[in-house]
Design goal:
Radius of gyration: 22 Å
Distance between the termini: 47 Å
Mean pLDDT: 90
Number of strands: 14
Strand order of the largest sheet: 6-7-8-3-9-10
CATH class of the largest domain: Alpha Beta
CATH superfamily of the largest domain: P-loop containing nucleotide triphosphate hydrolases
Order of helices and strands: EEEHEEHEHHHEHEHEEHEHEEEH
Largest sheet: 6 strands, mixed
Number of helices: 10
Structural class: alpha/beta
Bound molecules: adenosine-5'-triphosphate, magnesium ion
Number of domains: 2
Shape: globular
Length: 297
């Protein structure tokens, strides 16, 4: 069982064609949706969680048609939106209790057990009496994931969950997701941060300008950048030149100038050596070569 997306298009009323014939199958496990700002990730996700209708196309989620069976779909799905906020002055545990009620857990006792369990699992038990809007940024995000997981969903959708988190909270958040992914659920993680994907997703897709340009394991994407990443040590003026012409991924100051890593089809300068690509290089190479986002000389 999985999520099957066919011929998905979204044209906003102002004519923006935000998704263009998206076809995708999302298996259980952690699935990364990677793309630059404006790629269409949030649009895709709002359709996936049945908050917005596509202009055309269909999505089947574990046997349910998300357009015709919204209620059932909501029951098997947890969602953490990109702009997750609290509108009412709830205490942390009250907020979770409310989320549990909304997701259909009717028994008060069952809710209490579930809320306590979630508070412990995301490390918010000690602050359960604090008002949710008084929590730190990282704690708010953890509360966000707790409300998404409260009813043991089959499908968990999170939109840009680590934006604005410090490294420690980021790792903590990823670990929470990885733990949830253990139970044969599908987790869809939308992000423009390559590190979020490389550290946790077994499968991924690359979305750019509304179109899918890659689907597969992150390692397969990395393979596509082999032979395209160069390392060189250059003096300041050469660095400036290269920086204007090519996507430069890493710059480290060294005694006689800069050590740089550059994505390019051919050596960007004399003395450049091939370098083993990582996912960030591959992402840049792929977006660059396919869609010309960066201008080459
Ligand atoms: N309500 C809307 N009406 C018209 N155009 C929209 C609307 N929402 C988004 N768009 C446009 O659709 C495209 C995709 O936007 P979307 O928010 O889905 O991208 P995103 O990948 O989530 O970007 P980000 O990384 O910045 O969150 C953009 O060009 C955006 O300007
Ligand atoms: Mg977005």
């Amino acid at each position: 069982m999985s999520i099957i997306i066919k011929g998905l298009n979204k044209i906003y009323p102002n004519g923006n064609h935000a998704l263009k014939d998206v076809n995708l199958e999302i298996p259980p496990g952690m699935f990364g949706l990677l793309g630059p700002n404006g790629a269409g990730k949030s649009t895709f996700i709002r359709i996936l969680v049945a908050l917005m209708e596509p202009s055309s196309g269909s999505i089947n989620m574990y046997g349910y048609d998300i357009l015709k069976e919204r209620e059932q779909v909501r029951k098997i799905m947890g969602y953490l939106p990109q702009d997750f906020r609290f509108f009412a002055p709830y205490k942390t545990y009250e907020f979770l209790d409310y989320a549990a009620m909304l997701s259909g857990i009717n028994s008060r006792r069952e809710r209490k057990e579930r809320v306590d369990e979630m508070l412990r699992s995301v490390g918010l038990y000690e602050v359960r009496d604090r008002y949710a809007n008084k929590l730190s940024g990282g704690m708010k995000r953890r509360l966000g994931i707790a409300q998404a997981l409260i009813h043991n969903p089959k499908v968990i959708v999170v939109d840009e969950p680590t934006t604005g988190l410090d490294p420690e909270e980021r790792i903590r958040f990823r670990n929470l997701l990885t733990k949830a992914a253990g139970n044969n659920v599908s987790i869809i993680l939308s992000t423009h941060i390559v590190g979020d994907i490389s550290s946790s997703c077994n499968n991924m897709t690359l979305l750019n300008k509304g179109q899918i340009s890659f689907v597969g394991a992150p390692e397969e994407l990395i393979k596509k950048a082999e032979g395209k990443v160069w390392r060189a040590i250059v003096p300041d003026e050469i660095f400036q030149q290269i920086n204007e012409e090519y996507p430069v991924i890493t710059t480290i100051p060294v005694a006689n100038g800069w050590e740089i890593q550059v994505v390019s089809e051919t050596p960007p300068c004399e003395g450049a050596e091939l370098f083993a690509p990582n996912l960030e290089h591959a992402y840049v190479y792929f977006i660059d070569s396919k869609f010309d986002l960066w201008r080459k000389g």
